[in-house]
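Can't attach files on this board, so I'm pasting raw text. These are the components:
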Amino acid sequence: MNLRRAGTDTIWIAWMAIGYIVVLLPIVVVVFASFSDSNTFRFPPTGYSLKWYQAAFASSEYRNALGVSLLVGLLATAVSLTAGTLAAYALSRSEFRGKSSIETLLLAPLALPHIVWAIGLLQIYAWLGIGGTLLGLVLAHAALTLPFAVRIMLSTFIQLDRTLQEAASTLGASPPRVIWHIVLPLIWPGVLTSALLTFLTSFNEVTVSVLIAGSRYLTYPVRLYSELRSQGIDPTTVAISAMLLALIVVFALIGERFLNWSRRV
Amino acid sequence: MTPAYLSITGMAKAYRGTPALRLVDLSVNEGEFLALLGPSGCGKSTLLRLVAGLLQPDAGSITLAGQSIERLPPHQRDIGLVFQNYALFPHMSVAKNVRFGLSMRNMPRAEADQRVGEALALVKLEHLAARMPSELSGGQQQRVALARAIAIRPRLLLLDEPLSNLDAVLRNSVRTELRELHARTGLTVVMVTHDQAEAMTMADRIAVMSDGLILQHDTPQVIYEQPASDFVAKFVGTPPAAMLRVDRKHDGGFGLGTSPWTPSPELARVLEPIQRVGVALGLRPDHLALTAPDAPHAMPGTIRTIEYLGAERLVHVEVGGQLLVLRLSGDAAVGKGEVGVAITRVPPIFDIETGLRLASTG
Amino acid sequence: MARKSTVLLLTPGLLLTGAVFLSPFVFLGLTSFWTQRPNSLLIDPAFTLVNYVRIATDSFFLGTLFRTILLGIVTVAICLLLGLPIARWIARRAVRTRGILVVLMVTPMVSGALVQTLGLVNLLSLLGVINGLLKQLGLIDWSIRFLGNEGGVLIGLVQAFLPLMVLPLITTLAKLPEDLEAAARSLGAPAWRVWVTIILPLAMPGILAGSILVFFASVTSFVTPQILGQGKVQTFGTVMYQQSALVNDWPFASALAMAMMLVLGVLLLAVRAVRRGLERRPVIGSAS
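---
Top answer:
Structure tokens for the assembled complex are below.
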């Protein structure tokens, strides 16, 4: 019986291992490959070095792409977090007919296929003449990430006890002071969570960016995409990707430890 | 006559077409402790929130200390409110919670420190000033909420079900403490409660509410002895009053159910002039006594159950299809079976149709 | 809250979603009935069904549609087979362990599609990790070609979307009472019967949700087939992209996009019907 028990446990664990290997192996390989010393990655590597990391910091081309991604990400996060927080507040604090349809509408970008949207957006942007512009990219990323902000802020506001605001107002706090002293200090974990998630989504976005980004505002994923399409992987991008990965993992761990991400998202 | 300290006139409020308050007038004198008593959904909490300014009335006016306040936003009303769930700010220490209202009034630091100290001393929590709300027991949280509301020296203190979240042992001591606090501060207090015992023991006056209306507004004693309607009689008192229907026969006599009955001369004098087919007697234990089944004027009944409560016992007797409750001393011998029940005092008498007390009685 | 401020607070979000996200779908519906003038960037805004007729009659597009759906179905099947035991295992861990495992599962998703694809290329290429490893072990003499065929695309799709299957399954399975399985075992059911009669029926809502997510994601995916297929594997996503960005026949791309919306819409209606059937069924243990 015990032997059989141990046998089934082994099968379970092996199955788990296969699943996690499938999911995690590609990003592990990226980190591993970044330390290779040859110009094209091959396994087993001929040697190890940090030269691609040095190249990454030296290359102005990649710095530009990362800069564009950062700029678009920050602007899109600002827009979508503001719009999302306001909408979530209205949805959590009032009752009206059609409320659930408005919620569905705001969450629609989660459900509708992005490739279809991107093809339509490309045509509209061409018609409006904002294809390839910063405005176009920021608007697209903001619209795409809005549902994350709405969803996380909505659950944040629902958890915020409404009587706290009422208590503050009976104690003499005017509405702006209620928001400043009571609401903001209590919702900041939710704000931070949705800001990080929104930023990451924008930073990683590729489907729509490939279609609407022009040569002036080329985000890092679009840069990486065209490299992978044209068959040649520059080891510098591998090093940059490895660094980005490390950053993201650190963020994810911090988020889980302090903000309980796995229960919030 | 000078106008009342707090006076509410013609107050009405509906939620999505469902009336919560129909048309309420209420006045509270300065320094008085008023209880708004009623079952859940009767509109008492709505009334409290309207006074605090957390809801906007559909109609009606509120004046406080001679000032019309129904248009003022809550933060300009100077009314302290202790919430049922206490609503302590979880990100602030006890002292910061109590100080909050004073900071909003931009009070100088030294003065605010002193006020916070006073308020915490009043609720005997000076030693917990640095704690966070999550580190306090339910009873302590409630006292912090109380101190926070008192610290702003409100013109009016509102308490929303202050005892409902406390355990039974704590409830009794907090009841006394709230009473003492009221005596010491001289604040005008309006408390919402669904517990009639709480209202009876704590309040100077009680407003009994049902279905968006105030049914009776008077001292606990008057409400207990001369309830305005059968609802009030059944809602107030332990045990509540039982309603016994008495019919008027065609020949002018009286009947209980199908059998004829001759009331005592004292009661008959009150019942005779009432020109109704039937009335309801609101009978509490203090109106009743056990007798032999064949005693004159007694109502024949059957003992159903006996509750032993130590110093006394409550005897449930079925009379004419109704259960009446009598009180006997703990050591009195009672058997089971057929008994007689005598009405020893004239009880309040209610109209069968409207439920209102007939003015000539009680 | 006052009606006016509610409207005011909702306006920016609705405007953003409506103008930027939803309007392209309307626009696509419109332009799919127009045509591109030959050898020109001008569009002829006259109503015609010619684009749709072309999709319905051209064997290339029909074949692509069929291949895309087939890839989606196989991806769902593999994810389900792989994901169900994993989800079951994770769901039975303590909350703390479960959190860590969920974060590990989500990490690739938040690290971006392209970084993952980059890793996959390094893993699967002729000189990549897998071929290198197999050669070192002496199992093969010649590199196996993983990229540029359906197999490679399939690996990429499973890798990218397995978490989409596992996460809803964990949510569903974590809600099941712990004792359920023990109860079934104590009544004499062998392990495989516990799975068939207890776990699978109760996990059905999660299985449906996960399958829809994975199917949608793989059918509409574009980066994975484009890069791992190396231009040799056409899916609906890559064809739409080519028609938009390379051929520049926008009305035809619109019609392709609408055709995809139609396929997904029909599928969604079918799933809803299945789900309604599930809801009518008694929740635990049907007698049949």
